[in-house]
Specification:
Length: about 80
Amino acid sequence: MLTGVADANMDRAPLIALTGQGSTLRLHKESHQAMDVVSMFRPVVKWTTSIANADTIPEIIRKAFHLAQSEKPGAVHIELSEDVF
């Protein structure tokens, strides 16, 4: 996914990439792997963020669409954790 998102950004194609993340409550307690996906996407997108609170979802989605289409169009990334729900 990362390579495709990077290509979209270089081609100035508006794109919103959504990724999931497991619950932080289970981190290091079960066999679930967690990676810092936001840091992985940071060099290849216009903007990346992690949603930590369900109340911020509408604002973050609006910002993502605006940034993906504005100025030089490109890719943005949003990580959604299980903790939000």
